[in-house]
Amino acid sequence: MKARQHYYFFLTVIIVSITLLFAHEFLPDNLRKRIFQFPEIDTIGHLTSFFILTWVCHSVIKLSLTVCIPLLIFYGALTEIGQSFLGFRSGEWGDFFADVIGISLFVLAKFLYLNIFKNSSRQAKN
């Protein structure tokens, strides 16, 4: 059953990614300018990618959250420090905070899933 959930999640991520990749051709001009000219689109990408990276590390690779969280925060800091030394990239605090927020959102989602959905399914069985 768990493998099926991973399959559906990856399928959803792929469909959303492809839709966003080609959405600029089908959207009206005013909506396209609002979405794709949004200056924080990179920050949203950092948040989303670290949410997914935390999910992969915890659920697929099976790292515990106590190992996964500091490891990914360190990785996010290291990438931003590395980008600050590149001439064509810049390390930004906002991107690092988006990385940490993405990790935190996964932890919150996992907490809510375990406490709300698992408890409600247990109560329904009783």
Helix content: over 70%
State the domain count: 2
Radius of gyration: 18 Å
Question: In terms of structural class, how would the helical and strand content be classed?
Answer: mainly alpha
Terminal CA distance: 22 Å
Question: Could you describe the 3D structure shown?
Answer:
By secondary structure, the protein is mostly helical. It has two domains: 38 residues; 87 residues. Helix content is 81%, strand content 0%. It is globular, with a radius of gyration of 18 Å.
Question: Quick recap of the structure?
Answer:
This protein is an all-alpha fold and 126 residues long. The protein folds into two domains: 1-38; 40-126.
Any descriptors?
mainly alpha, 5 helices, membrane, 2 domains, globular, 0% strand, 126 residues, transmembrane helix
Draw up the topology in text:
Layout: H1 2-22, H2 29-36, H3 41-60, H4 65-84, H5 93-125
Helix pairs in contact: 3-4, 3-5, 4-5
